[in-house]
Amino acid sequence: EPCIIPESYSYMIFPCVLILAFSFFLAHFVSFPWYWKWFKELIIGAPKVNAGVQIVRAPVEEDEGIEADAGDAPIIHQLAPNDLDVMWRHIRRLEENERVERNANVERDNR
């Protein structure tokens, strides 16, 4: 018997709509940040707090007669969004430590 090709493809509409709907659903399902984070933690495990942080130091131009050191200006590369908070907390802690140390030196010099 010869192969009979139907003239109408209307029977294909429902499966195509179904596939399209499923693909849109899948795309939105995967792109929900809260769900994706939970899913990744479930499968991979909770991420490390400061994963992906790399600090690369760059030279600084000389300013007002101060000699520039190659390690003066930190340039932050490859930071994940949740790592920025960790980084800024670290920087603030370092600044606070420097301030405390300066005050201690001033007090020692005044004695």
From TrEMBL:
Keywords of this entry: Membrane, Transmembrane, Transmembrane helix
TM ranges: 12-36
Keyword Transmembrane set for record: yes
Name the record gives this protein: Uncharacterized protein
Originating species: Pristionchus fissidentatus
